[in-house]
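TL;DR need structure tokens for one chain.
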Amino acid sequence: MRLWEDGFDHYGTDPDNLLDGSYAASGSAISILPSTAQAATGTHSFFFGGTAFNDFGAGTLRKVLTNSVTGLGKTCRVYMPALPTSTVCFPVIMATPTAATNRYHIAVGIDTNGAFKVYRGMFLGGSSSSPGTLLYTSDPLLVAGAWNHIEIQIGYSDTAGFIRIAVNGVHRVEQTGLDTLYNADPVLSDSTFIYSSSSATSGTFYFDDYILYDFTGDSAVDTDFCPQMDGSKPTNYIGELQVWPLFPNGDTAEADWAKSTGTSGYALIDEPSPDDADYISSSAAADLSEFDLEDLPEEITYIRGLGIHQRLSKSDSGAAFTKAGMKSVAATTDADERPITVAPTYWRDTVDVDPNSSARWTRDSLNAAWLRMTRSV
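>> reply
TL;DR here they are.
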């Protein structure tokens, strides 16, 4: 089951925007931030760098899961301008925190030669940081100066844990029979950061096309995001995927939501950088607006899933609920109701099935579909 996807194309360049519902921690502006300097997909990626590496609170991107998992998969693209030069300051591509402050069950880092190093019990605490127990070191697998696609699958167990890693679509690491739990705490989030126990500034990197999935979940429901299983262990990967942004680019005849200015509703909600100065609004239940979306690039021919990320707020007290959805030909589908708060908050929903065909979206059907926004209460 897919748990999350992000291409970092709708936050602008202010890391504080990520804290509006998408992430539990995003570091500080001097350490990590959305960036246009490098992008694997779209216009932005996420940059890990700066001057505060030994400040363990300043360099972590942490995504909290909706429930605990015993098997977590992660795919992403990573661009390193140079390989890390320090063994005490390096990228950590995947780390699963315990409930203890800044302690991790498993952390997968990158060594000075491009190898993966897997640690149990890593601790982040500034100059007192410790990488924990080294469980495994791979051959050199990553290069600098290019985007590397990385997929990691971790099974969590005291005795039967495992680590599987693919690089650029090729299976490269298989380690089984591991203790992958630092303690009895459940696995509830995923973190990405630069580990450091010094003031060194080694290991800067860019991060894009971020996807999380639970491979022990409902594989019969979402086979594209649950690899084939042999018992509790996957036998394949979901592969090299892009997280491609599609912004609204046209109004339709269904346009109940009021415009704060101008005559085009889509032009008020199409900003890659959040702008609260203009917006659409609804004051009545059942208000519905539908919008055309940008077309996918021609080279994208297969669609694994569709995530709707929206930033919503209300102006005063009282109940306010909205639903996001899609319209395909004459058929419609809406996601769950979302309770809107006064503070601007990002909500994420999935509409992975075309309501017209009851099958996966195709490039043509998605290009012709409309985004729906309904105020339900």
